[in-house]
């Protein structure tokens, strides 16, 4: 299978489950590398279970998500995800997140996120 097709297939599976908040974990590599949430700290979080734990917390902050755009080039992809966020303080925000992916050995191997962390974090207080 062409690499771009494989990457798109993995991401389609991931985002279907991610939007439903269930059944997305099987396409994540055991040595997954995640960078995001705090762009002042660009050290990645390593490991599938660590990423699952992060997403369990993050999933509490969005009601819905949609893939707005996906650009795939071989083992690399960039996705613009659009989220309807709901915060503990009652504030609701719609926002985009740029999500940069890599695939290795048939699994999603890394993700780097870019988003408005200041607005996000200020609404968690």
From TrEMBL:
<protein>
    <submittedName>
        <fullName>Ketosteroid isomerase-related protein</fullName>
    </submittedName>
</protein>
<feature type="domain" description="SnoaL-like">
    <location>
        <begin position="23"/>
        <end position="109"/>
    </location>
</feature>
<keyword id="KW-0413">Isomerase</keyword>
<dbReference type="Pfam" id="PF12680">
    <property type="entry name" value="SnoaL_2"/>
</dbReference>
<dbReference type="InterPro" id="IPR032710">
    <property type="entry name" value="NTF2-like_dom_sf"/>
</dbReference>
<dbReference type="GO" id="GO:0016853">
    <property type="term" value="F:isomerase activity"/>
</dbReference>
<dbReference type="InterPro" id="IPR037401">
    <property type="entry name" value="SnoaL-like"/>
</dbReference>
């Amino acid at each position: 299978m062409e690499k771009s097709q494989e990457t798109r297939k993995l991401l389609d599976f991931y985002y279907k489950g991610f939007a439903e908040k269930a059944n997305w974990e099987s396409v994540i590599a055991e040595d997954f590398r995640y960078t995001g949430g705090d762009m002042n700290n660009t050290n990645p979080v390593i490991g599938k279970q660590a990423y699952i734990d992060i997403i369990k917390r993050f999933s509490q902050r969005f009601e819905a998500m949609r893939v707005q755009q996906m650009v795939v080039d071989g083992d690399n992809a960039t996705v613009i995800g659009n989220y309807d966020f709901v915060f503990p303080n009652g504030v609701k925000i719609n926002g985009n997140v740029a999500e940069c992916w890599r695939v290795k050995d048939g699994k999603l191997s890394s993700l780097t996120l870019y988003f408005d962390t200041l607005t996000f974090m200020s609404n968690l207080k």
